[in-house]
Amino acid sequence: xxxxxxxxxxxxxxxxxxxxxxxxxxxDPEVYARAxxxxxxxxxxxxxxxxxxxxxTRVLDWKPPHAQWFVDGKINASANCxxxxxxxxxxxxxxxxxxxxxxxxxxxxxFDLYRQVCQFANVLKDLGVGKGDRVALYMPLVPELAIAMLxxxxxxxxxxxxxxxxxxxxxxxxxxxxxxxLLVTADGGYRRGAIVPLKKMADEALAExxxxxxxxxxxxxxxxxxxxxxxxxxRWYHELMDGAPITCPAEPMxxxxxxxxxxxxxxxxxxxGIVHTTGGYLVGVYATTKWVFDLRDDDVFWCTADIxxxxxxxxxxxxxxxxxxxxxxxxxxxxxxxKDRFWQIVERYGVTILYTAPTAIRAFMRWGTQWPAKRDLxxxxxxxxxxxxxxxxxxxxxxxxxxxxxxxxxxTWWQTETGCILITPLPGITRTKPGSATQPFPGITAQVLSxxxxxxxxxxxxxxxxxxxxxxxxxxxxxxERYVTQYWSRWSPDVYFTGDGAKLDEDGYYWLLGRxxxxxxxAGHRIGTMEVESALVDHPKVAESAxxxxxxxxxxxxxxAFVTVKEGVHLSEGLADELKAHxxxxxxxxxxxxxxxxxxxxxxxxxxxxxxxxxxxxxEGKALGDTTTLADPSVVARLRDQxxxxx
Length: 647
Ligand code: WTA
Description:
The two termini are 39 Å apart. This protein is an alpha/beta fold. 32% of the residues lie in helices and 23% in strands. Strands 12-11-8-6-7-14-15-23 form an eight-stranded mixed sheet, with helices on both faces. Strands 5-4-17-16-18-19-20 form a seven-stranded mixed sheet, sandwiched between helices. It has a four-stranded antiparallel sheet with strand order 21-22-24-25, with no helix packed on it. The structure holds 5'-O-[(S)-ethoxy(hydroxy)phosphoryl]adenosine.
């Protein structure tokens, strides 16, 4: 049997190598039992490794479903990312090694970053931003994005990063929901050789954002595009930074003061502003970065996520910087200009830890092993995966062709709401199984529950978290009720419902099965079906729509939209394209439907609810089950026939 054949059996598992184990931070499986016995003491030990300006009086105050961690403690996130390193030998260590898509490069040491963050903090203050004010950031993946986040944190302002791929309308809604006073954006950013005109899109949003007083615009060097600067409102970043003082005291924040808001899709048409606070969040990302990635001072850590998502917040910015790590940041696409761009970056900077998404790994698989084989990847010692379930084939391919069979693979499960990784191997301890995120991190208790809330020992059910953890969300911005109903009402107020299905095997390993609610995971991005449906019915020709996911080889799921049109509208290929473009314009390109299926009618139950399960089955081409609850069963048959003709 060849090595590959041996690995492709279903029951394969991988022990950490003796070599890896020998140098790892944590190798004693006892850590699980110790954390289980006293989780508060477990987290407190990590908290002690951070810098506080006033100690906490209590580790946890838990009044389900509201938690306070490190009660009365005072801490500043920016000081923990910067000041705590510049007094040490790390002062001139590289904090960010950045590469732009066109190939421009910059390195910022911890001392550089500290000064620029202080300068921008002073700029923000001069523009009237104070503690508790919200600042929206709509940026390409450039160091200034991290600088702006840390500058907000330094003065106690709350950042709300809006992914640069979102549309003007999405930006507008997020700014208005958070009532942001200031927006930081850029003239443009690069994507597959094209310039994304961020300022132009921001201008569109700014026509309807009365709370915004000032806009700061970063000039992204190459982007030679016309930028309109509105007198009295818009200022250039480089002009404001020029001469700004290079020190700025870090505001002592209460552990429970808000650090940031990050919008994510849920089960309604309106994205939710997930609220994270300071102390507990920092402890969570600090601890998990250190243990899950076995981070050492000579590591070069590359998390490929955009900072616009939670993965970028926790594992490009706050987690690695609290640990004093060297972080690689790359602005662009993995296949630009060639399909070996990632491997070129790994080779060029000697990346030791790579953290990416299954969707990227599946694309690499399709492109072929010749691309990673062209480059020297021997610096890599650990690989991570995040964002969606990883299929065993992709896991094994990653392990063999990127990790050279020597690197442990950590498949990490978590969410925007959880703030940090919660289910994951510990690379020096855990025997991994391809496709399983393995075990809850020490101090975390998860359960697989039946619909009725009965714990499943072996088998499938719904994933729940049964104890609070430091980095957990503290709420939904401006909607305290939704926080309770969405997450803590399924079974009881002290049990958190994740929205994910999961399976437990005989060894107690967790296998994540994807969302069980109306949220889709498309290419690792969270998209609410209701958001796409609202965007579709916003089109003047559309009467009704229902959006479901269908399995997709690379993206995990593809977006499949069933649409009924208004009387007299002519159906055409052109109309389908028009609707796809409409959704991309309303939400952003990530939400563009893959399929538009025109239907005479949508299948509904007698009580008028759209039968999504049935639509999913049609989209997947599965046999139709019992449809007796349909008001007009022939609708389904017509739909199915039509779908099969078109697919
Ligand atoms: C999914 C991203 C399986 C899951 C950090 C979750 C995963 C949603 C994994 C959160 C994983 C994330 N295995 N599924 N390792 N990681 N997910 O908020 O469905 O963008 O609920 O956070 O992604 O997506 P979010």
